[in-house]
Design brief:
This protein is 27% helix and 31% strand. It is an alpha+beta fold. The strands form two sheets. Strands 2-1-11-10-7-8 form a six-stranded antiparallel sheet, with no helix packed on it. It has a five-stranded mixed sheet with strand order 4-3-5-6-9, with no helix packed on it. The longest helix is centred in the N-terminal third of the chain and has 40 residues. The radius of gyration is 26 Å and the shape is elongated.
Length: 148
């Protein structure tokens, strides 16, 4: 059947297919872009920095100063690793020491298998523990206070 079509019709058909594929690709790019923009907008609305901070009470051997406010993200990992949300350069803090999570309107802390452990108000954290504003979190020699 294709041999029965003149060559010009075949080229026209190829051009139409190419234009269709080009517009289809552009449609997919626009859909992905809109989806990403919506995700960023909802994260800014729901995950604002007003949900919490950590205030340095005792910096231990880290370079932080007492009173420094460290903003929290909905999932914040605390440790020495450069990619941690909150980086503490204290020798008693593990690479990934603890994780703070905002869930159901409340902060939760979990120890990530740290060498020196994590304590909340002097009590060791052995399971995910709910926090209240004003609680003191101890990671090695560093003491941090959870505040709104």
């Amino acid at each position: 059947m294709i041999t029965a079509l003149p060559f010009e019709w075949f080229i026209l058909l190829l051009r139409l297919v190419f234009v269709f594929l080009l517009y289809f690709f552009l449609l997919l790019v626009i859909r992905v872009t809109l989806r990403e923009l919506a995700a960023v907008a909802s994260a800014q609305r729901g995950g604002s920095s007003s949900i919490g901070h950590l205030i340095v009470q005792s910096p231990g051997m880290s370079s932080l100063r007492p009173g420094t406010r460290l903003p929290l993200e909905p999932v914040s990992v605390i440790g020495r690793h450069p990619q941690c949300t909150i980086r503490l350069d204290d020798s008693f803090v593990s690479t990934e020491h603890a994780q703070l999570t905002w869930d159901k309107g409340r902060w939760w802390i979990s120890d990530l298998g740290s060498t020196n452990g994590t304590r909340v108000n002097g009590q060791p954290v052995t399971a995910p523990t709910g926090l209240r504003y004003g609680d003191v979190i101890e990671l090695g020699d560093v003491r941090l206070v959870l505040s709104p």
